[in-house]
Each structure stands twice: as structure tokens, then as C-alpha cells.
Design goal:
The chain is mainly beta and 390 residues long. Helix content is 6%, strand content 46%.
């Protein structure tokens, strides 16, 4: 008779374990706690997308823009098609809604989408010379089919005042002649103004916007700070970065601390990181992630900690996503593993107003042994990492 309570307890425990497993598989077991904060699922995007961008708006909501459409087989064999919708995430309701659906949005590659002002996003097509502006307040898209830019395939930098610095490119009537000329394009008035200071730029220049109408120009190993309004060079010096490190802006934009992530290029080992500060021209060596991940998304959590997420790792058969995210602590000078965050590559991350990072979309790759090809799935997943302000 005494065995019955033990049997009942055993059945109860087994039932709880099974229920937890079911909830976990259904993504209803939402929270993944860590010493630095926790991950929490917040539903799904309306459209699967990878390599897209996210913008925090003044009202605390997040715009989801661009990205590659759903792909279900070999990622490298299929021409990329871009999502033609803009989604909006409401952190209060934890829901996504389609804000705008416009076929012309599929003409813009994701890396040509930028914030123009507090309530505007600019889309630039340098191949067909088309510019479009999305206004968040009015939820409208204005397309400039013939912007007055006297060149195509140009390079550009969106400045903090809403103007676009145009440099390099080919003449409209002569696609073989590379122009060194520079100018300012005002997309609101469709106006282009030529600038005289041309010898700062070359075909291999990289240009990044800084505060106070300044820009940083990188040519090989030199860094020049140039003020557009006064048309003067403020500082010119050699780039102070560690040996064998390169700037990887394909996967990471400039952080709000005016730092950019550096990766070490040495025997295909891209998992050793450093930070370079555009304003001070100083570098900070970080070291290697625990999972030896590369192409990580990096977000500033506070003045001490950085979140490295959606990193890519090598396995025996295929390049795959690392199992977990990691935190880098500036004071302790080390990476710490965060359990519970396996997600796709090419996700989009953005800091929100509620001490959290929103992570959306991405893609997963797996090796199909039956037909010896890579299967790829574009994701709708969304989660937030709510961090502690240590």
C-alpha cells in the first residue's frame, strides 16, 4: 500500500517533464535565463527574412526593413530576391505587423538601406540610380526615379544632417571612367552640389559619418578626419589597429560608441576580435570567442559589456551557427557563454529602449546527405535579450 504514493509521485514528475518538453518544442517555454540577463521569444515576423535591418524609432517601436526572401535549398545557387515589405514591432504587445507592402522595395539591396533622419529611412539603388524615402510618421514611400546625381555605381555615406555624401562612381555616359569627384546630394530637394576637395578620396576609400559634420576617410593605412561644412582637414594620421586585423563592415555597422569591430585575418581564423574607435584612433584587443565564432552581430549593452550573437562556427561538414551567444566584459577582458540562444546567421539586431536587444529573422543551413547539397531555410523567429545593467 505504501508504494502507491511513490508511483503517483513518479507519474506526476514524468508528466511534468513531458509537458515541459512539449512546451519547449512548441516555443512556449519562452525564457532562457543567464547571469547577465535572459532571452525571451516574442513571436514571429510576418515574412521570413535574412540579412535585413532594424531601426529603433522615437516611440520605442522597431522598423524591420529589407532582407532576403525565403530560400529552402542551396543558398549559393539561387539569385537573391529581397522582401518587399516593412514590418513594425511593438514591444508592449510583442507583436509584428506589416506596416507597408510595396513591390518597388524589392529593388533595393539591404546594405543600401539607411536611416536618413529620426523618422525617415532612405533606400538607394546605385545601379539604376534610384532613391526612395520612407516616412515613418505618414507611412508613405516617396521614390525619386531620376535623382540629380551625375554618376552611377557610386559610393556614398549618409550624413547625420540627412544629406548623402557621394564619392567615386562612373560617368552616366561613360561606364569605363571612374570619377574621383565628390558631392553632396539632398534627397528631399533632389539637389546635388559639387565639392572641391577631391584628393582625399580614391577608388578604395571607405568613408564613415561622425558627429558635427565630420567624416572619417580611410585610405589603405591612413585615417583622415574631414569637416564638410568648413571644407577642412581636421586630422590625418596612420590607422592604429593591431597587426593582421581588418575592419569587417559586411556584418557589423558602427556601434553607438563610434567603435567598429575588427577581425583577425590569419589562416582563415576570423574568431579573434578587437575594437577600433573612429574618434580616438585607438584599438582595444578583445581576444577569441569561446566557440571560435565569426561574423557575429555585436550590440553595446552598457559601458562595460558587449553582446556577440548569431555567430557562425565551423563543424566537420559545414559552416553552421554557433550554439550560444557570448558576452564580452571590458573590465574582466573575457568572453562569457550565454546558454539558450541558438539562432540563424544574418539575423538583425537592434538595441531597444527597455534595456534589451531585439533579434529577428536569419537563416539556418544544414547539409543534406541524400543529395549532397546545402539546405537553407530563412526564418521568421524573433526574440529579445533583456540584459542586466551591471
Amino acid at each position: 500500500m505504501k508504494k502507491k504514493p511513490l508511483i503517483i509521485i513518479g507519474i506526476t514528475i514524468a508528466t511534468i517533464v513531458v509537458l515541459v518538453a512539449i512546451l519547449y518544442s512548441l516555443n512556449l517555454y519562452k525564457s532562457y535565463k543567464t547571469p547577465y540577463g535572459h532571452f525571451e521569444r516574442v513571436g514571429n515576423l510576418n515574412e521570413s527574412r535574412a540579412g535585413h535591418k532594424s531601426f529603433l524609432m522615437s516611440d520605442g517601436k522597431v522598423l524591420i526593413v529589407g532582407g532576403i526572401k525565403e530560400i529552402k535549398n542551396d543558398y549559393f545557387d539561387i539569385p537573391k530576391e529581397y522582401v518587399d515589405s516593412i514590418e513594425l514591432f511593438n514591444p508592449n504587445t510583442k507583436k509584428f505587423e506589416i506596416r507597408l507592402k510595396e513591390k518597388s522595395l524589392s529593388n533595393f539591396k539591404t546594405y543600401n538601406i539607411h536611416r536618413l533622419s529620426a523618422n525617415e529611412i532612405v533606400f538607394i539603388n546605385v545601379d539604376d540610380n534610384i532613391v526612395a524615402i520612407y516616412n515613418y510618421k505618414t507611412n508613405t514611400l516617396k521614390t525619386i526615379k531620376y535623382p540629380r546625381i551625375p554618376k552611377k555605381n557610386y559610393r556614398y555615406t549618409v550624413l547625420n544632417n540627412g544629406e548623402i555624401l557621394i564619392y567615386g562612381g562612373f560617368e552616366l555616359n561613360d561606364p569605363t571612367y571612374w570619377q574621383k569627384s565628390i558631392g553632396l546630394f539632398d534627397p528631399h530637394n533632389n539637389n546635388y552640389k559639387h565639392l572641391d576637395y577631391n584628393n582625399l578620396f580614391s577608388e578604395k576609400s571607405s568613408v564613415y559619418a561622425l558627429p558635427d559634420n565630420n567624416i572619417a576617410i580611410f585610405n589603405n593605412k591612413t585615417r583622415t578626419i574631414y569637416n564638410i561644412k568648413s571644407n577642412k582637414v581636421i586630422d590625418k594620421s596612420n590607422i592604429n589597429i593591431p597587426a593582421n586585423f581588418i575592419v569587417d563592415l559586411l556584418f557589423n555597422s558602427i556601434l553607438q560608441t563610434y567603435e567598429v569591430v575588427l577581425i583577425k585575418k590569419n589562416n582563415d581564423d576570423y574568431s579573434v576580435y578587437a575594437l577600433y574607435n573612429f574618434l580616438t584612433n585607438e584599438s582595444t584587443y578583445l581576444g577569441e570567442t569561446n566557440y571560435k565564432g565569426y561574423s557575429c552581430k555585436v550590440n553595446v549593452l552598457n559601458d562595460k559589456e558587449l553582446l556577440f550573437s548569431a555567430c557562425i562556427c565551423y563543424s566537420e561538414f559545414i559552416i553552421e551557427n554557433c550554439k550560444n551567444a557570448e558576452i564580452f566584459n571590458r573590465d574582466k577582458r573575457k568572453f562569457v557563454i550565454l546558454n539558450g540562444q541558438k539562432s540563424g546567421a544574418e539575423i538583425s539586431t537592434v538595441n531597444t529602449k527597455s534595456k534589451s536587444v531585439l533579434l529577428t529573422g536569419g537563416r539556418l543551413r544544414s547539409y543534406n546527405f541524400s543529395n549532397e547539397r546545402i539546405d537553407v531555410k530563412t526564418l521568421k523567429d524573433a526574440k529579445v535579450f533583456k540584459f542586466k545593467n551591471n
